[in-house]
Amino acid sequence: VDRRGALDVLERALGAHELPLARQDRVEVVVVEPAVLGDHVDIGAGCTIDRGVTAVTRIGDHTKLDYLVQVGHDTIIGKRCLIAAQVGIAGVVEIEDDVAIWGQAGIVQDLKIGAGANILGKTGVMSSLPGKKSYGGMVADAARAFLRKEAALKRLPDLLPALEALLEAYHRNG
Hints:
Layout: H1 3-13, E1 22-24, E2 27-29, E3 35-37, E4 42-43, E5 48-49, E6 57-59, E7 64-65, E8 70-71, E9 76-77, E10 82-83, E11 88-89, E12 94-95, E13 100-101, E14 106-107, E15 112-113, E16 118-119, E17 124-125, E18 134-136, E19 141-142, H2 143-173
Parallel strand pairs: 3-6, 4-7, 5-8, 6-9, 7-10, 8-11, 9-12, 10-13, 11-14, 12-15, 13-16, 14-17, 16-18
Antiparallel strand pairs: 1-2, 18-19
């Protein structure tokens, strides 16, 4: 494919309309804002970057999107971010600089991820998160709290017989 042909393919893949027209309260909204890439952005195969609806969709300098990443409309991704495979980012999300989002994490719309945040794989981000912390879990929690809960859950089957014995003794003795 010559240079012009390659650019045509890129223009169709980057910032393509999600559907022919977005609909809101049965009023057609035309997608008019572009998707803008900074310098040295690396986009893996199968990524989808939606064009903006009310604002530009922007990916900052030196950011890497691994394979099969979805970036929603009007989303801003900062500089030097690393987004692993199969991450889904809804529309109107702001991701500040130096954020790492690991595989299969999902981020709902209209929130902010602070600079330097680290989001573990398969995390469900349901609200804005401050920067410089790690988060994990089906609903994102501080990574340390998430790991403590997971460790406690694994011990639960062994603890249940002791707990039942304590409850039985309590009820017996009044």
